[in-house]
Amino acid sequence: MTTWIRCDGLFDGEGMVDGALVALEGERITEVLPRGTASAAEVPSEEEVLHVPFLMPGLIDCHVHLEGYAEGSPAGAPFQPVKSFLRLLIYNGVTTVRDVGNSLETIDYLRRWGEKFHSTEVLSCGPVLDVPPLTWTFSRIVDAPEQIPREIELLALEGIDFVKAEPNLSPELLEALVQAAGEHDLQVACQPGRTSAVTACELGVRSLERLEALVKSLGLETSNLEPGSPAEEELLTALGGGTFVCPTLFAHHREGDLEAAREDPHLELMTTILPYHKYLQQMGGLFGKSAALDNLRPYLRQDPATTNGRPGRRALDDLTRRLAGANVPLVAGSGAPGTGVIPGFSLHHELAALASAGLDPLTVLQSATSQAARLLQREDLGRIAPGAQADLLLLNTDPTRDIASTLEIREVFKRGHRVDREKTLGYVEAMLD
Q1: 305: exposed, middle or buried (C-beta count within 10 Å: 0-12, 13-18, 19+)?
Q2: Which pLDDT score, from 0 to 100, does residue 134 have?
Q3: pLDDT-based confidence at 229, cuts 50/70/90?
Q4: Three-class SS string for the chain?
Q5: What are the tens digits of pLDDT across the range 99-126?
Q6: Dihedral of CA 229/232/238/241: which sign?
């Protein structure tokens, strides 16, 4: 059975089309007919066509950890938090995510569950590679370069989509990791740290995660990365080889602004994934604010009372704009879950943050569609074209005029299946009772 969608405006993943008629059959897009190009014999009656103001590809979030309940899993339902995570993603039109660290068992379960219920597609690195002291329980230890080929071979056999290197890896270890991954046609994602962003690029990593980490890895204040400075020229030269950057601006901004997090209208939903958010909600009370903050502090990545030398918002925004101006490929990543970084909603906030940093609307939309698909090496994602996977976001208004319009969702399609958004959100809300 063919589903027909007529839109007044179309973003096809690369650029704008002034209206089109799109046909879906099964899991794929079969026709994209720009306005005025289809004859009456080629299209169904108008009664059989779904009319929408704007159509674009489903969104791709390039930086998430599908996890929850750091305070201990709910008795008898260890995967309930991540089901809520996936439901909030697909409710918000996030049809694909790139998980940057998780247990293989969790990823396998979520893929099976997602396929059954037409939920968000998960691409993952599985366990991350690190040296002690470890940040994650799913990390695998690589103390020496000679250990790495065996670990990469094992991960390849276990079906991962890419490899993730943690910040504590030395240049020597990262070099061995990139070489071993390449022998299995696997790309490497790296959060810079002990190995600087420049060195990581020179070693051949595919993507750099978190712009804040990139800056810190260079051992510089962000002010040293001014336009035309030697430090910036060195960075841009290193990135010129095609390394992707996933800035995660919104997560950085929100971590430094608990008041904004507390006022998020969807904050309550986050308690189904990371229950400590109840303490953030309690900060609204005058007399309970101090006690709530004391309860909240153990879960925060940084103490809200100090900036600890973190780059400021304006500095990261300016650097993001200059990277885009230098044609560095940028991809959108929410960094969810984090304090006030709510799955699904936060990717829309990341798009708004990129726009606020000065990126033009098409570049912003590409960062979560076709550009993200290039990073994932998936030609069938992030585009509206014949043969592409029918992951679609149907909107009420044109986001190229106002990026916030990506939240004005009318319908979501995943692999040609229309998502029941009301029921999907209802399942999450039921967990609040």
Answers
A1: exposed
A2: 92
A3: confident
A4: CEEEEEEEEEECCCCEECCEEEEEECCEEEEEEECCCCCHHHCCCHHHEEEEEEEEECEEEEEECCCCCCCCCCCCCCCHHHHHHHHHHHHCCEEEEEECCCCHHHHHHHHHHHHHCCCCEEEECCCCEECCCCCCCCCEECCCHHHHHHHHHHHHHCCCCCEEECCCCCHHHHHHHHHHHHCCCCCEEECCCCCCHHHHHHHCCCEEECHHHHHHHCCCCHHHCCCCCHHHHHHHHHHCCCCEEECCHHHHHHHCCHHHHHCCCCHHHHCCCCCCHHHHHHCCCCCCHHHHHHHHHHHCCCCCCCCCCCCCHHHHHHHHHHHHHCCCCECCCCCECECCECCCHHHHHHHHHHHHCCCCHHHHHHHCCHHHHHHHCCCCCCCCCCCCECCEEEECCCCCCCHHHHHCEEEEEECCEECCHHHHHHHHHHCCC
A5: 999 999 999 999 999 999 999 999 999 9
A6: negative
Q: pLDDT at position 231, please?
A: 87
CA distance 177 to 168: 13
How many whole angstroms separate alpha carbon 105 and alpha carbon 244?
Answer: 28
pTM of the model: 0.95
Residue 222 has pLDDT above 80, yes or no: no
Alpha carbon distance 343, 273 (integer Å):
9
Q: What is the average pLDDT score of the chain?
A: 92
| Residue reference for tokens 């990823």 | 107
